[in-house]
């Protein structure tokens, strides 16, 4: 459910302070996944914590209004199993080996 319009978007004040102190090209670490991206953040690179590590997120214009957590997934997709999947992966591996042999 969306945050009330009268309250406005949630923006972590400590994150704004870190932005003011940040040097160009430096990643700003944050644990605040619920923080809304605002226009002042465009161009900065943030290290968003996913529970294990900090994933770099470079903020662009299209990201304004979204939350940091949307760009740092917390789960890793392994793959769907089954015979069909193994056959598809075998075909891809075969094509890659052909390309390597042609390059030699």
From TrEMBL:
Extent of the signal sequence: none
Domain of life, source organism: Bacteria
SUPFAM superfamilies: Ribosomal protein S19
GO annotation, cellular component aspect: cytoplasm; small ribosomal subunit
One Gene Ontology biological process: ribosomal small subunit assembly
Keywords (A to Z) from UniProt: Ribonucleoprotein, Ribosomal protein, RNA-binding, rRNA-binding
PROSITE patterns, per the entry: RIBOSOMAL_S19 (PS00323)
GO molecular function, one term: rRNA binding
PANTHER family: RIBOSOMAL PROTEIN S19P FAMILY MEMBER, SMALL RIBOSOMAL SUBUNIT PROTEIN US19M
Similarity remark: Belongs to the universal ribosomal protein uS19 family.
Function noted in UniProt: Protein S19 forms a complex with S13 that binds strongly to the 16S ribosomal RNA.
Protein name, entry field: Small ribosomal subunit protein uS19
Species assigned in the record: Candidatus Nealsonbacteria bacterium CG01_land_8_20_14_3_00_12
